[in-house]
From TrEMBL:
Residues 91-241 form the DDH domain. This is Single-stranded-DNA-specific exonuclease RecJ. Pfam families: DHH, DHHA1, RecJ_OB. Residues 360-453 form the DHHA1 domain. Keywords: Coiled coil, Exonuclease, Hydrolase, Nuclease. The gene is recJ. The keyword Coiled coil applies. Gene3D superfamilies: 3.10.310.30, 3.90.1640.30. InterPro entries: DDH_dom, DHH_sf, DHHA1_dom, RecJ, RecJ_OB, SSDNA_exonuclease_RecJ. The keyword Iron-sulfur does not apply. It comes from Celeribacter baekdonensis. GO terms for biological process: DNA recombination; DNA repair.
């Protein structure tokens, strides 16, 4: 594969890779058959969309893509038991994980039940005191006062805690990797059970909960009853899908696309309050879900009270929503400060150990367990390697990991737990959690490196920058960006189109804040474009462009519409540059 624009080492030390000759031919054929812009066709070709599929791909319909809930094992049992509890006015508890997927899953159930006139109990474990998932004391206590416990975004590996829920029935609605055996309970609905086909493995837990409610509504219709409007709940499903970094393929695209439309209506009091404190002044996008709303909801589970996010999403009280949103915003600011300190220490340790192996890892005393996952993500991004970050409290360490495409981290972590190197561990392909004793740390990380190396981790250098093609500044219009957005939503497994602007002159460059850069550029023939580069001064990119000295640069990034003062303009989200 040749270097795009002959860029072998950019200012961020990456090689630029453009579309293959075959992809270029496919894009040109798509443009001829459909009349769509070539830039859009380049994006469609990369996603494997043919001319006959283009129209449906650009307008995904939930009615065409939503699977029959009963294709998931145990779904019928779960829906029937849930409906029995509602009819008999039994006491229901919802046990949820403390992240966005868990919080939205809980809110889906709580609001659905409330619409049916039924109040349920919410229980979310404390990250530090209780850790992830059901635990025996909590489940035993809930079982004393409830007839049904629904575990969402957790529970698949919780054999002993579920067994401790004596006297209550338990339903698990989850998506984390299952083990060889399942806990004994009424139902374990999970597209990542070992006996599932894997066709729906990309669903997050909130989507599994949504599908169960679809089936419950169907059962009610068969009896002449009407359930709550589930389309109004898609804002929660969209938020969970994006924030949990679920791949935006198949039905996930339709769920997020429709969910964004629902969210734009600002009907959910909690999300409206959160959007306001996050200063979201435009229609929601997958970016705002993943980088503005998601981190704030997660902040409660990371460093504050674990149930803040779920309570915000489920509340009907505007005053409570405002107070919760402000508290989460404050916690998110505190989380950033804690994260920065851990990130600096972890990066220094990882660099000293070496970033060229199959695994990058770091461990430290007192590192807050609420931020180790975010720091692992930063290490993964900077090294293009799976990364593990562990915080120790005495002899026990709790850690989190993030993986790269094509390397199944969750399965490797499960194998380590089965081999006795971890106290416990699990997750899915791209993310995992673990608990390890200090005396097992080095052998566990060594073994994990071996397992990941077998999957190809460590084979490459810094990640190549993949480009969809070339554009001239004059072709970058609001109309083109609007057309490109039809190929979205963009996110995990569906990156936004990225283009190179060749041989451009920098007309002005200005540092913004501590590490950001704003520039204006053109090719000398067409109009000038503005670009923003976040974190430019964290590396060589910012200093080089600010001190351009009249030199020309190839510029690469993603196009977006910038709205300011009621006016719209084209802006490049600059990601990389190379001397022309």
């Amino acid at each position: 594969m040749s270097d795009f624009l002959d860029v072998t080492t950019s200012l961020t030390a990456r090689r630029w890779v453009g579309p293959t000759d075959d992809l270029i031919r496919q894009a040109e054929a798509l443009a001829q058959h459909t009349g769509l812009p070539v830039a859009l066709c380049q994006t469609l070709a990369r996603r494997g969309v043919t001319a006959g599929e283009a129209e449906r791909f650009l307008d995904p319909k939930l009615k065409d893509l939503l699977p029959d809930p009963l294709t998931l094992k145990d779904m019928g049992k779960a829906a029937e038991r849930f409906l029995v509890a509602l009819k008999a006015q039994q006491r229901i508890a919802v046990f949820a994980d403390y992240d966005v997927d868990g919080g939205t899953s809980a809110a889906l159930l709580l609001t659905w039940l409330r619409d049916m006139g039924h109040q349920a109990t919410l229980y979310i474990p404390d990250r530090i005191d209780e850790g992830y998932g059901p635990n025996e004391p909590a489940m035993a206590a809930l079982a004393q006062d409830h007839d049904l416990i629904v575990c969402v975004d957790c529970g698949t590996l919780s054999h002993a805690p579920i067994a401790a829920a004596k006297g209550a029935d338990v339903i698990v609605l989850d998506h984390h990797l299952g083990g060889e055996t399942l806990p004994e309970c009424v139902a374990v609905v999970n597209p990542n059970r070992q006996d599932e086909s894997g066709d729906l493995a990309h669903l997050c837990a909130a989507s599994v909960v949504f599908l169960m409610l679809v089936e419950v509504n169907r059962l009610m219709r068969a009896e002449g009853q009407k359930g709550p409007n589930l389309m109004a709940a898609l804002d929660l499903v969209a938020l969970a899908t994006v924030a949990d970094v679920a791949p935006l393929i198949g039905v996930n695209r339709a769920l997020v696309r429709q969910g964004l439309k629902v969210m734009a209506g600002r009907h959910r009091i909690g999300l409206r309050a959160l959007a306001d404190v996050a200063r979201m002044d435009t229609a929601p996008t997958s970016y705002s879900l993943g980088f503005l709303l998601g981190p704030r909801i997660n902040a409660g589970g990371r460093i504050g009270a674990a149930d803040l996010g779920a309570r915000l999403l489920a509340t009907q009280d505007p005053n409570e929503a405002q107070a919760l949103a402000e508290r989460l915003d404050q916690l998110n600011t505190e989380r950033r400060e804690i994260e920065n300190a851990v990130r600096e220490a972890a990066l220094a340790q990882a660099e000293a150990r070496g970033l060229d192996g199959p695994l990058v890892w770091a461990a430290g005393e007192g590192w807050h367990p609420g931020v180790v996952g975010i720091v692992a993500s930063r290490l993964k991004e900077s090294s293009n390697r799976p990364a593990i970050v562990i915080g120790f409290d005495g002899d026990e360490g709790k850690g989190s990991g993030r993986s790269i495409s094509g390397v199944d981290l969750g399965a490797s972590i499960q194998k380590l737990a089965a081999e006795g190197l971890l106290v416990k561990g699990g997750g899915h392909k791209m993310a995992a959690g673990l608990t390890v004793m200090r005396d097992k740390l080095e052998p566990a990380m060594e073994r994990l490196s071996e397992l990941l190396a077998k999957q190809g981790a460590g084979d490459g250098g810094p990640a190549d920058l993949k480009l969809d093609g070339m554009l001239m500044p004059g072709a970058a219009t609001i109309d083109l960006i609007t057309r490109l957005e039809a190929a979205g939503p963009f996110g995990a497994a569906a990156p936004a189109p990225r283009f190179a602007f060749p041989s451009c002159a920098i007309h002005f460059a200005r540092r913004i804040g501590e590490s950001h850069l704003k520039i204006s550029f053109s090719d000398g023939l067409g109009p000038r474009l503005e670009a923003i580069c976040f974190g430019a001064y964290d590396g060589a990119l910012g200093p080089a462009l600010e001190a351009h000295g009249g030199a020309r640069f190839h510029l690469a990034g993603r196009l977006e519409i910038n709205t300011w003062g009621g006016r719209q303009s084209v802006q490049l989200r600059l990601e990389d540059a190379a001397r022309a």
